[in-house]
Write a structure and sequence with these properties.
This protein is 62% helix and 0% strand. The protein contains three helices and no strands.
Length: 101
């Protein structure tokens, strides 16, 4: 029974992995260079104009206003009178009034 040469197998696997990574890396850089040279959306995203900057700032202010409103608003004002519990009918002398039947 012949045992495999583990050092040689490991070196072969490492060299195959390096070749795959190198070819994948070169494909990635090639496609990225093509997209950055030819795609107008990529250029607009990388260099936003004045309109995009203003609209982004307005959206940010609106989001900040909503978050602050949700955090700081006193929500007990919206509960209404029924949330205070049952009301008792007391006179000025603190005596309960009774209905005669």
């Amino acid at each position: 029974m012949k045992f495999p040469d583990w050092n040689r197998l490991r070196a072969d696997a490492a060299s195959r992995g390096r070749r795959l990574l190198t070819s994948g890396r070169s494909r990635f850089h090639t496609s990225r260079a093509w997209v950055s040279a030819n795609d107008p959306v990529w250029k607009a995203w990388r260099r936003p104009g004045r309109a995009e900057t203003i609209s982004g700032a307005v959206a940010g202010v609106l989001v900040l206003a909503v978050v602050l409103t949700l955090a700081l608003f006193d929500w007990n004002h919206l509960r209404g009178p029924s949330a205070a519990g049952p009301r008792t009918n007391t006179s000025a002398t603190s005596a309960s009034t009774a209905i005669w039947t």
